[in-house]
Design brief:
The complex is a heterodimer of chains A (115) and B (111). With 115 residues, chain A is mainly beta. Chain A contains no helices and eleven strands. In chain A, strands 2, 4, 5, 6, 9, 10 and 11 form a seven-stranded mixed beta sheet that branches. A four-stranded antiparallel beta sheet of chain A has the order 1-3-8-7, with no helix packed on it. Helix content of chain B is 0%, strand content 53%. The chains are: A mainly beta (115), B mainly beta (111). Chains A and B meet through strand 5 of A and strand 5 of B.
Chain lengths: 115, 111
């Protein structure tokens, strides 16, 4: 049981390049999330998904796209990377029952630098 | 005003000390509260949920004050391994599954 995994762990991009970050979870969680973490800003929600085939915008969605074609995978895409997207990206997943918030399990993160 | 506010610290304490962190939140409709721990260059991990009646887990005690909209975390008998950043987390006003994270309070425990 690996929990939440993310690939790649590190990446350096040039401005304008594109890339996809992959998140996978083996806990059969319904909800999945992408966050970015910047110094002094805390974790900010980029996009999230409440189930296979569904996605929704979070707090800072501009410049990113996501897809959830399979329940266990959640992909984050950067179509044209900008230096402002230099950050640490975390994927997370959680169960969903009723109206309560449940523990979110995080992946180890992807450190992205855009030059 | 930020939705969740924390003192960034760092709090420097000797081993064995008791240390307390507070966190304030702005959304009075919030229903779920948590403390997460994040080690340097690692992912956040749930430390404990915070219940209205207060709860304790070993050396850690969490309290919720809904009237004043703050959450506290008390760590007794600090260990070197408690050195980390502690994130206050509250469910956001746009969805019960969407969490709002504070920027964290850094704790350094020294020998």
């Amino acid at each position: 049981n690996a929990g939440v995994t993310q690939t790649p762990k590190f990446r350096v991009l040039k401005t304008g390049q594109s890339m996809t970050l992959l998140c996978a979870q083996d806990m059969n969680h319904e909800y999945m999330y992408w966050y970015r973490q910047d110094p002094g800003m805390g974790l900010r929600l980029i996009h999230y998904s409440v189930g296979e085939g569904t996605t929704a915008k979070g707090e800072v969605p501009d410049g990113y796209n996501v897809s959830r074609l399979k329940k266990q995978n959640f992909l984050l895409g950067l179509e044209s990377a900008a230096p402002s997207q230099t950050s640490v990206y975390f994927c997370a997943s959680s169960h969903h029952w009723g109206r309560e918030s449940y523990e979110q399990y995080f992946g180890p993160g992807t450190r992205l630098t855009v030059t | 005003r930020k939705e969740v506010e924390q003192d960034p610290g760092p709090f420097n304490v000797p081993e064995g000390a008791t240390v307390a962190f507070n966190c304030t939140y702005s959304n009075s409709a919030s229903q779920s509260f948590f403390w997460y721990r994040q080690d340097c260059r690692k992912e956040p991990k749930l430390l404990m949920s915070v219940y209205s009646s207060g709860n304790e887990d070993g050396r850690f005690t969490a309290q919720l004050n809904r009237a004043s909209q703050y959450i506290s975390l008390l760590i007794r008998d600090s260990k070197l391994s408690d050195s980390a950043t502690y994130l206050c987390v509250v469910n956001g006003d746009t969805g019960f599954q969407k969490l709002v994270f504070g920027t964290g309070t850094r704790l350094l425990v020294s020998p």
